[in-house]
Structure formats: C-alpha cells, structure tokens
Write the structure tokens for this entry.
Amino acid sequence: MIIKMPKAGTIEIAPSILSADFAKLADEISQVEKTGIKILHLDVMDGHFVPNITIGPPVIAKIRKHSNLFFDSHLMISEPEKYADAFIKAGVNNITFHIEVVPNPTDFIKKLRDSGVSAGLCLNPETPVSKIEKFAHLADMILVMTVHPGFGGQSFILEAAKKIKPIRQIVGKDIRIEVDGGIDAETAGIVSELGADTLVAGNAIFGKSDRPAAIEAIQKACRR
Ligand code: DX5
Ligand code: ZN
C-alpha cells in the first residue's frame, strides 16, 4: 500500500516513538493512531553521527504490519545513502537525512523519490540555512532540528527555530517544514507561528499517560 505524505497546508503532529515503551511498540503506536494523526516519526540513530543507538530496518518492518500511518524516518546516521534501500524495504514512506553528511544531496533526493518515498532534508541547530538553500526546493520536507540530535526530552533551542522563517521564504507553501526537539504545548505556538507545519513530539506525547490529551494540547497550541 502506498501511503502519501499529507499535502502541505495542514498542521500535522508527528509523534516520535523515541519516548515510547519499546517493549510494547504496536500498542503505543495504536494509542496515537486512534486519535487521527497521520504521521509517525521514527528516529534512527547509529552511535556515530549521534552519540546514541536506536532502531533499524528489522524493527520498522515489524511495526509496519501494525500501522497504516505515514512512516517518517529520520536517519541520524553517517551514511544514509548506504542504508536507504533497507529502510525503504522495511516500509518507511519518507526518508529524512542530514545535510551535514550529504552536502550535495541532488542525486540522493532523486533516488529516494524514484524509489517511491519522499525525501526530507534536515539541518542541525548549528547548521546555517545557506547549506540547504540550493537544494531545498528539490525536497518534500525540510526538518529543522531544535535540539542537538541524539536524545529525547531535551530543551527547545529558540535560536535554531528562528531558521524556520527564512526557510519558509525559500520553499514557499508547498513544501512541509518539520520541526523536531523540545516541542510541547508551549513551543508549538512559537514554531507554528514561524511557519512550521509538521511538529514532531516525543516526550510531550509518550512521556504522558493520556496520549490523546497530550496530542490535543499541542494541536490547540498551534497558531496559524
Ligand atoms: C532527537 C530526535 C527527536 C526526538 C524528539 O534526536 O530526532 O525526534 O524524539 O524528542 P522530544 O520531543 O522529546 O524532544
Ligand atoms: Zn527526529
């Protein structure tokens, strides 16, 4: 089944399973899927690009059988080109990779789209907008990190969020701008006002016992 990224123009909350209970992932995912959200954010870490290790294709292939959500994989890994096919085979619908490790991403973005998945381009808090400027229009989504990648539950970096506005000017309204790190019912207002439309939240959803209420609180905080 082909699952498409929701068309730009709506605000989408994308729960990150990083803060979920990995011993009962299918259950955790079903709790958020029931609320009507469309995107699930999957954080992949290699212990090399970031100082932490999470999940890879075998786990994703298993959870794929339990969910119809759009699987938005965020590859925090040093060699995304080498592993993309394995993630596509496992069932992801989007691959977001870091500009810091693929500084000339034109061919890789094309390869991803030719393989039937969308392409996201991510920049770390300290990476300037100028690094993605030439390639931004080729991607389906730009991911602005508002924490240093590697761990859930960190504090939101406002300076990094300020890049959303110039990026929105570059990409126009048809490309999604996702924001990741420290998003909760308070910071959601700031990033949505700056022009982000796809809000990843890990701790603010899976760190709470009432997941539907947590998602609703973030949705309500969005300003548009
Ligand atoms: C951080 C990951 C995030 C993380 C966000 O390296 O890319 O997706 O899960 O977690 P919170 O929402 O807890 O900051
Ligand atoms: Zn992420």
